[in-house]
Amino acid sequence: MPTSFLSRSVFVIALALIVAAVVFFGMNYLNKPSSSNNARALIGGPFSLVDHNGKAVTEKEFEGKYMLIYFGYTFCPDVCPTSLTLLSDAMDIVEAGDPELAKLVVPVFITVDPERDTVSALKDYVGHFYPTMVGLTGSLEQVSAAAKSYKVFYQKTEAEESSEYLMDHSSITYLMGPDGAYVKHYSHGTSGEIMGASLLKILKQ
Ligand code: NI
Question: How far is CA 27 from CA 20, 21, 100, 127, in A?
Fold first, then answer.
């Protein structure tokens, strides 16, 4: 029965097209607003901490500037020094590209180990990495609240051959905009070249 076969084929093809269209537009709809808008809503927010000069600061201190934020701790044997070196390399690239744009970015190191990372410990530490880097510490509660708003995980662990403890922690660098909202993040191990080029591109927009 050719007619029935034909109409059934047309029906099947039409159905397949409809399904494909729904999937295509559905994916488009889901993809578009999700990554940036959700992250804007979910990452960052108000914080109340103490800087490496002992001054109480909130997110308002950084209004009008981009913050390049990394959470870590000064006793960290490897991950933090490596990440902060990459972050500083990126800042050097921005500085070399346009010194005026570099002034718009404040590299911020927020400790997840406020018990050992006192104001003076942070002051010694951040200066090694970048001249304008700001170190932030605070009470256990203040640090916990800041880490929570940036979705940063951390916990104490025992060091194997030492009485000193270590901290497991997320290793992500966040770029927050002049309005304090999330702009972008750089995953662990992003090279200074890639981060620097990305920052320059964003700053020039
Ligand atoms: Ni670390």
Answer: 10, 10, 40, 46
Task: Kindly give the distance from the C-alpha atom of residue 205 to the centroid of ligand 1, in angstroms, as a whole number.
Answer: 32
Q: What would the pLDDT profile of 145-158 be if each residue is shown by its tens digit?
A: 999 999 999 999 98
Q: Give residue 81 CA to ligand 1 midpoint distance, Å.
A: 7
pLDDT mean values, one per 10 residues, the chain (205 residues)? 62 61 53 51 92 98 98 96 98 97 98 97 96 98 97 90 88 97 96 98 95
Q: How far is the CA of 57 from the centre of ligand 1 (A)?
A: 23
Q: Which residues contact 54 (CB under 8 A, 6 or more apart)?
A: 119
Q: Which CATH fold would you assign to the domain 37-203?
A: Glutaredoxin (3.40.30)
**pLDDT given at position 132:** 97
For the chain, the domains span 1-31, 37-203
